Amino acid sequence: MVTARSQSIMSIDGLDVFYETEGDGQTIVLLHGGLADNSTWGAQFAGLSPHRRVVAPERQAQGHTPDRPGPLTYQAMTEQTVSFLADLDLGPVDLLGWSDGGMVGTLLAAEHPELVRTLTVTGSGFASSGYAPGAMEALIDLSPEDDDMVMFAAMYAQSSPDGPEHFPVVWEKVRTMWAEPFDWTPWVRQISAPTLVIVGDDDYITVEHALEFARTVEQGQLAVVPGASHLVPMERPDLFNRLVLEFTADPFPEPMMPLWRKARG
Is the dihedral of CA 242, 247, 249, 250 positive or negative? Predict the structure, then answer.
């Protein structure tokens, strides 16, 4: 019998962090994408909770977790997530991150290997050079009133305790963070947890960069989802959930005819 979804709030460094929990069994932690919230994980709560205990926090200024003064940074969000896992005594967990959530998961797996059993990222890279040409530039140029921002603004208005009028402030923080060039290759090389990199074949992250990610980590695997965009978990939920469940159940497969894995060994 699946445990019903519960909602809770945890104080982390004075910030009231909202999170949800559903199901029983080995814990899998979901980290949502930037400017998103747990509603985007609807198909994953439904598909994973019959098999696993699903835990999903919402980060600062996103979902039901309020904003506070100062910039948003990946490092600060990573430290916040580390505190979240430690305070709930959750590690080591299977960590699943989407877009910004995957980037938080990447830093977390590199800096705190004791907390991560496996890492799965979708639509997430480790360097700004991995974005599809022009994609991020076009995104960060949008104004908060742009038609392409309607979905994000509506999601924010529905859940944020800061109210819809605060959305332009949050958008300015997020796009400033997104515009900052980065290259986390040294961190990726530190990741010892088995890692599954999932990417849509028409994603914000290029397939080539996703392959590089999977081959740079110590124990990497790659899944390219055909006919999919940056929204793989929503577009192809059954396939996505199966990939995650099978990977976390058996993160060390033994291919019959390995090539580059054999060369690395």
Answer: positive
